[in-house]
Amino acid sequence: MLPYRDRSALRKIEEELAASDPVFAATLSQGVPPAESRRWQKILVLAEVTVALMLVFGLMGGETGWFLWGLLAAPLLVWTHRTMLRSRREGAADDQP
To answer: What pLDDT, on the 0 to 100 scale, is given for residue 59?
Structure first.
């Protein structure tokens, strides 16, 4: 626990920040996304890289199967990305007063 003097100094800094830049202060007050959300974001990026590599190697190497699986997985990843962004935006809109 911080001493009273430090807590009051931090409270003053927070009030000054909120007064000078309310958007930035609101962004900071939202905090860090949960660990599970960050994990899913990393998994999604890894899946996107994998699909891109499947498409490239399928085309370059003449592997039709790799290319077709990548072609089938790409729309699924686009849908997943759009769904995650939409839910994140709706969650952010619900948090604002």
So the answer is: 92
